[in-house]
Design brief:
Length: 447
Amino acid sequence: MAELFPRFNLLKLGWRALKFRKTSPLPCSAQTSRSSSSSSCGPSSFGLLFDIDGVLVRGRTPIPAAKQCFRKLVDGNGKYKVPVVFVTNAGNSMRQTKAEQLSHLLEVEVSPDQVMLSHSPLRVFTQFHEMCVLVSGQGPILEVAQNLGFQNVVTIDMLRKAYPLLDVVDHNRRPKNVVPSPKELPQIEAVVLFGEPIRWETNLQLIMDVLLTNGRPGNPVTSLHYPHIPVLACNMDLLWMAEAKNPRFGHGMFLVCLESLYKKITGHDLQYEALIGKPSVVTYNYAELLIRQQAESLGWTEPVRRLYAIGDNPMADIYGANLYNRYLQSTRCARAQVQAQGGIAGQVAGDVQYETVDDAKNSGKVMVGGSYEHCLPEGCSSILVCTGVYSRDQEDLAPDQTVTEQRIFHGHRDFRFDPSLIQPSFVVHDVLEAVELVFQQESCPLE
């Protein structure tokens, strides 16, 4: 029982962390006045990472401040004043489709090159592209998988049609009369989870069949294959905000179910080859690549020095931005140490860079769009808005209420609970206030 008290104090600290309004990794003030600086902006050196759900939209409804914000972010010709990338954990569409939706909702031109979905970093996981992979999710997942580079894809629907006796929870979908002979599919070598599916029971059952049979779901389970075939999961959000008054289940909830089922049946933990999407570092590495590309398209010749990540979910947007900032600081320190010893920055080992970065299954170790010596940003500030998952009303809880880890840490099982990582650099009301704050910090007029 005595062991519970230190843990309770740690969790209580984590909850209180959200009540602080200023803990920036960069030397800046927490003032959130809507007045812009009148001084000249000079050479800009920062970029903006926007979450979408809960920041720009609620379901299909734009948040009013979002349109106002983006009217200020573009000039009279519709050109962005600074590099902008939309980083969402959604993954049930193509980048082109999401860009068109955002263009319509925000009334500014959004390019597919500015859109990063949860599965986008899978483009660099080339070691899996020639494998036969089972994909789960909804939307055009076959097209999504092929667009990412996967060449041999099996969907859940393809699997249940090949083996009609596997999906029997829904009695109406069971085979009637004569059972058709199963089709022989190639052995499945990996599982890619793009997002929450529509029929959870079907997806859970068939994914378990694949894992338990080492990729041959038509065969009986004669022995446990452990470790199982690789599993890559995109989007770990337990909850997300739509039009409803309260958050809805996200793909993270589906992962909790799958992990629990695998543990219950086998006695072993489900293992992930990689966890992709916020808050993983690989996601922010990929976002930084897109920011660099956007800066080049704007004609910038100097590197982007600072990033500002704006989100509504402390467990994804804030945790991820702060984790990435920790990675940046760790990398800078490691490079400085190597240079001090007479080496060059490119000799920094990947393990040194990630010593203080808790990123499940080392998924952050995938360098994206650059070498170890390319100029990384100096830091990444996290800005929490109150129009989505997080609300300032949460601060009004009585201090003597019981606080549990389940209540505080909605992050994925494989990410360590660290109260400092859910503490935003700034808390503001909405996305317009967030952008005005950033431009004020940068002494750059927004109008």
